[in-house]
Amino acid sequence: MSGFPAVRPRRNRSSAGLRALVRETSLDAGHLVLPMFIHEGPGSKPIGAMPGVSRHDLPGLIAAAHEAHGLGIRAVALFPALDASRKDRLAQESVNDQGLLQRTVRALKRDLPELVVITDVAMDPYSTDGHDGLVEGDCIVNDATLPILAAMAVSQARAGADVVAPSDMMDGRIAAIRSALDQAGFTDVAICSYCAKYASGFYGPFREALDSAPKRGDKSTYQMDPANAREALRELAQDEAEGADWILVKPGLPYLDIIHRLRQATALPIAAYHVSGEYSMLKAAAAQGWLDYDRVLMESLVALRRAGADLIFTYGAVDAARQLRVG
Length: 327
Ligand code: PBG
What we know:
Layout: H1 16-21, E1 32-38, E2 45-46, E3 54-56, H2 58-70, E4 75-80, H3 100-111, E5 116-121, E6 134-136, E7 139-141, H4 146-159, E8 163-166, H5 173-183, E9 190-197, H6 204-210, H7 230-242, E10 246-250, H8 256-265, E11 270-274, H9 276-287, H10 293-307, E12 311-314, H11 317-326
Parallel strand pairs: 1-3, 1-4, 1-12, 4-5, 5-8, 8-9, 9-10, 10-11, 11-12
Antiparallel strand pairs: 2-3, 6-7
Helix pairs in contact: 2-3, 3-4, 4-5
Bound molecules: ligand PBG.
């Protein structure tokens, strides 16, 4: 008994109406998080390796956030690009309540209170070593990093962050941050844990944007080995036990299997980070006339949703939201 000719999968594809009715995966602007770069300015400065993305000064960032919000984007993730003079070994600028990031969060929450503001917790933008944790000799030390991250998260919450997102991959940081936030009275500030963050070459353009590349060594003693999938389940179990509210997989497209595995294993919301290098690849090929940027962007985002992501951090959020508006 062969199904054909009674069974014809093409029948469900035979018109736009039918295709829309049987579509399994939705994508709308409300699923997207726009990552944004802020610098002292004045003005905005394009990032060479990320065409269409700039480091904004505060007025530019507020204007861009208004535009994104007007297109239905509900959240932004902020990354500060600091002057070298503000960096030190201990990342002390990260707890300056008058610092660039904190001022930006306050201004955004004043201007657009309903926009969800997500802040990154890791030492690298603030550290002269360019690592996410504290460097001692050749080591990125875990336990001594935890109070630094916890204090950073509290300073961000005090400025008004709705969600803090530790991207550092130290062990135990979710518990340390949760207890510091709770002790400071921020029981409603959520934690988006970068749960499965891989030691990836796809972060290259981001490090140019923040001038945050490690000065020595690489991040492979804390970020995950791209060859590992089971290990992501260990990270998940740990983050769930420590009180993470969302978990995040990063990069996105090369790790669809990880998103899918975590989707089977957790009831927590999952975010995927379509990272700088993934965005830059699409832009670079489109600039050569080799790919249709709008089309491959939407395909990439639908694929991340199909794999199991609830939310997607993407530099293409505004481009995608515009296309979704047009329909
Ligand atoms: C670092 C951090 C990185 C990104 C977000 N937070 C880079 C890194 O780990 O070196 C990468 C984002 C991107 O590439 O878009 N804490």
